[in-house]
Amino acid sequence: MSRTGKSERPTMEMVATLAGVSKITVSRALRGSDLVRPEVRERIVQVAGQVGYRMNVAARSLRTRETRTIAVVIDQIDPGRQSHTDPLILSIIGGLLETLTPAGYSTLLTTNEHFLSSSAVGADGAVMLGQGEGAHRVTQVSAMNLPMVVWGEPVPGVSVKVVGSDNRMGGKLAAEHLVGRGATRLLFLGDVQHPEIAARLEGFREALASSEARLVGALSCPFTAEGGAEAIRGALDAGTAFDAVFAASDFIAAGACDALSARKLSVPGDVAIVGFDDAPIASVHRPSISSIRQDGAEAGHALAHAVIALIEGDTAAPAHALPVELIARETSR
Asked: How many CA atoms are closer than 13 Å to the CA of 43, on its beta-carbon side?
């Protein structure tokens, strides 16, 4: 099959005629509608590809007032504190695409500053990755009154749909693991101004409260290896005695490990370490880093399903926490 003439622009009518179906069936098939039988949908998609036909999304948007676009809004991160190329963020974006694309949605990747300031940004809904300190970014974006889902931790007084990992359970698992191997003086590293990090510390504290071990410090630091290293150097210089570290990210944990080694302290002999995320650095670092694993791809799928449900008017689905698990490696064995 081919176009009937070099200058003839392919149309929906042409696809319908060649596929032996109606125009509305073509429209439904190319939008992935379940109203079209799979074998018919496959035939229509094949015909459309052969003749070079693509739906006029702009015209459809004018008719329906829908853009079929989801804005994925990433919190603008200060240089040196965390990277937009963080493996977890990239994994979540991949999961979003795996769900949104088959559902007929395009994905617009942007930052909160651009999303808030640009009148050219149009979307049917938004997924926000990163709540900002004190969740203030969420409040700003939610004021746009779009169906919105946030990756993070529920915050009292902020009424938005939230999907996130079970951060409190992650903190609990880290504490139980470290105490179980004999740790008695534990140090926490991470910026608790971020709701997810505060929840990890809360779960960590709760687990320690039922043991004879104690938390000797909670030091704020950026989500970077240098941030973790600087925090450890500061604790050692201050004379803080600790035999275990729970870091709010694997990058922080890697920096902490390197700083301890530079001071001739062995890991895990002198100090055991557990990080968070199970990012690639956890397995390739030497020694390899024990970590609380959260599934970025599954998070992306859950966020996509949640925002589509909101767009379709289902506001009843509750927020839920995705499971986490401890991956034990060399830093705590």
From this structure: 12
